[in-house]
Amino acid sequence: MAAQGRQRILSGMRPSGRLHLGHLHGVLENWKRLQEEYQCFFFVADWHALTTNYEKPWTIPENIEDMVLDWLAAGIDPEKATLFVQSDIKEHAELQLLLSMITPVSWLERNPTYKEQQQQLKERDLATFGFLGYPVLQAADIIMYKANKVPVGVDQLPHVELTREITRRFNYLYREVFPVPDALLTEVPKLPGLDGRKMSKSYGNSIYLNDTEEQVAKRISTMVTDVERPRKSDPGDPEKRCVAFNLHKLYLPQERLDEIVAGCRAAEIGCVACKKELAAAVNAAMQPMRDRRRELAEQPGAVRRILEEGAEKARAVARNTMDEVREALFTEPPEPVEN
Ligand code: TRP
Ligand code: SF4
Questions:
Q1: Is 194 within 8 Å of 205 (Cβ atoms)?
Q2: What share of the chain is helix, strand, coil (3-state, %, to 5)?
Q3: H-helix segments, 39-156
């Protein structure tokens, strides 16, 4: 089917620095599948990063290319998907401004992430206009490209819901310019960090996409195993108590998993060997990523060029949309036809 006929997908990530296996399994693997079937726009939400990081804005740009390099290494393909940086498309700011005129403040104050994030990031003052308006900017990102589907995790569902409400209100007040987008909820396999908490940069419990083989092996060797199994002679229970086993389940074939479960319960295999085997499997799976990363590193400026080309494609779409938006707002609607 022609690219124009395919449904549109849009998703974005804030540039938070190095990505880890949680991002790979939770987001990037999903984007890779989607880029085969849909017309995809994936972008770096650097203005969104500014809403919480306005005190150190200079730390944002340096994270952008590193993150996109991780996307590319993971297999996001610029021939298939359009990759760009939000702040390269100034139209997002204009649409955000226009949408802000029709968005009731009460909708934004009701947004659960508004209060949650303020509590979590207590050391920062997030009682700002920009942070309250976070979902309005997100709505602009999404409808700018007339996206039909927005792949997100559960935490982002309230934002997509707000986008839908703002879109309906726009279409009702002015003209039917935008499709109302649907959230595409991403199924995320269980992937805890090394210590059993959620994998997160701030906990220092992650395996990073750009880790070397040695780093991966070392990190996995520190992974928490069955605490009721201090010695190899104690029988374990991988399914119930071993954090590492969640990774085994993602990286080893079922047959081998069955053997490990049996061996662990019978106190026949030890955790050191078991995690060495895991590290080898994770490293084997990461090899194509390392190869692509090396190829890209050999072409200086490659990431920047990909983002420039992506911005051109995105800008063409954004300009069209803004023409329609201005026409919808600033030209008088046609007389209703009597019949
Ligand atoms: N708010 C999203 C996040 O923190 C990032 C984001 C910004 C986004 N604009 C978007 C996601 C549009 C999907 C669609 O993860
Ligand atoms: Fe976990 Fe393997 Fe140790 Fe069993 S042997 S507790 S599955 S690491």
A1: yes
A2: 60, 10, 30
A3: 46-53, 61-74, 91-102, 105-110, 112-120, 129-132, 134-144
0.70 cut: is pTM over it? yes
Best CA proximity match to 319, nearest among 93, 150, 144: 144
Distance 323 CA to ligand 2 centre (A): 60
> Over 60: is that where the pLDDT of 194 sits?
yes
- pLDDT tens per residue across span 64-95: 999 999 999 999 999 999 999 999 999 999 99
- Distance separating alpha carbons of residues 267 and 271, to the nearest angstrom: 10
Instruction: Please state, in angstroms and rounded to a whole number, the distance separating the CA atoms of residues 83 and 72.
Output: 10
C-alpha–C-alpha distance, residues 181 and 7, integer Å? 11
pLDDT (tens digit per residue) in 90-126: 999 999 999 999 999 999 999 998 888 888 888 888 8
Residue 339's pLDDT band (boundaries 50, 70, 90)?
Answer: low
For the record, the structure tokens of 237 come out as 């229970």
Per-residue model confidence (pLDDT) at position 1: 44
| Structural domains for the chain | 8-191+300-330 (3.40.50.620), 211-294 (1.10.240.10)
Contact, 66 vs 17, CB < 8 A?
A: yes
List, chain by chain if needed, residues with CB within 6 Å of any ligand 2 atom: 225-226, 229, 236, 238, 242, 244-245, 260, 264, 269, 271, 274-275
Q: CA-CA distance, 26 to 144, in Å (whole number)?
A: 25
What sign does the CA torsion over 138, 139, 143, 147 have?
positive
- Give residue 152 CA to ligand 1 midpoint distance, Å: 8
pLDDT tens digits, residue range 196-217? 999 998 899 999 999 999 999 9
